[in-house]
TrEMBL record:
Its main location: other. Belongs to the strictosidine synthase family. Residues 171-257 form the Strictosidine synthase conserved region domain. It comes from Vitis rotundifolia (Muscadine grape). GO terms for biological process: response to jasmonic acid. It is found in: Vacuole. The chain crosses the membrane at residues 20-39. This is Strictosidine synthase conserved region domain-containing protein. InterPro entries: 6-blade_b-propeller_TolB-like, Strictosidine_synth_cons-reg. Keywords: Glycoprotein, Membrane, Phosphoprotein, Signal, Transmembrane, Transmembrane helix, Vacuole. It comes from the Eukaryota. PANTHER family: ADIPOCYTE PLASMA MEMBRANE-ASSOCIATED PROTEIN HEMOMUCIN-RELATED, STRICTOSIDINE SYNTHASE-RELATED.
Amino acid sequence: MAESKPSDASTTRRSSSWSFGLLVLILTPVAAAIFLYQLDSFDPASLPTHEFSQEPMLVPKLNPRMLQGSEMIGQGNLLGPEDIAHDANSHLIYTGCADGWVKRVTLNESAANSVVHNWAFTGGRPLGVALGRAGQVLVADAEKGLLEISGDGVMKLLTDEAEGLKFKQTNAVDVAVDGMIYFTDASYKYGLIEFIWEILEGRPHGRLLSFDPSTQETIVLLRDLYLANGVVVSPDQTFVVFCETLMKRCTKYYIQGKRKGSVEKFIDNLPGMPDNILYDEEGHYWIALATGTKGLWDLALKYPSIRKVMAILERYIGRPHIEKNGGILAVDLEGKPGAHYYDPELSMVSSGIKVGKHLYCGSFVKPYIIRLDLDQHAARTIT
Ligand SMILES: *[C@@H]1O[C@H](CO)[C@@H](O)[C@H](O)[C@H]1NC(C)=O
């Protein structure tokens, strides 16, 4: 059967006007994007990527689906439980939440029977929490500074500036046996709600600090850190380990002995961006990785131009959701990786600690603490 076909000429005409339309459709946003890119004054910096370790990190044991079998603690009553401090005597967990409360969680074998209490209201955004030696809780509050809350809930501001520079994002805290408090200010430039700009800009505005309760003195130990985040005192009290989120690394800073004041690599080339680091009293540090970095994030850390495009998207369209494979990396006392728990569906994991047979994970955004039974869902050797 013969079909009537349009003439060749009209096909050409139609397809050429169609391709012209397509060209306009494509080029208009491209031109607008180039215009915005040129016009935008945001000027991200190159990171010192030559400091990144070249060797890939090999982790002997993995659980790449840690959400399978995990339970939710305090669902709905724990908004953005960022950091976790476990009190072994009372079996309570302290955590700082997005509603301004430092909460206390009474743990129970059954996740559903774990009870959340509002304990102390900071009026800011409590992030880091650490137990003092006399029943007090130290809080790194992103908005308020370094706080101390006594056992009966009375709050005191310890410090909120150093060397004339106010903290903009007090982030993490730990206490040495001698009472010295170590803490970080992630950035003196960007506050917590602007933290993405610290990442996109790629300049070091972070500091590692100490506060001496006996002299009330705040001392800057290190400056020019790339989003100074978690900090933990080593069990032998000779150094602290602190995380730099943007540099995907954790570094030792010696606080005792003849190396006092010097820094040394602890672990780098992490498989994600580190947040808090906690010690489990059993020979392992647990490093929370807010997001895996494979793919776009690694490119973004490498190329400022990609971060500029992300900044423009952030400003005019919104943040694309590219965070995934967040989780927890367990490393030994020497910084050697042992096990990596993560999940493609997981992002903004901000802390993790093993208590008994369970791994407890805090999150910057989720409304609960994640608990995983490590006997049942252990990381395994992948062959
Ligand atoms: C766990 O919760 C149940 C129910 O509230 C309670 O009976 C039990 O004593 C709790 N267990 C512990 C160890 O607190």
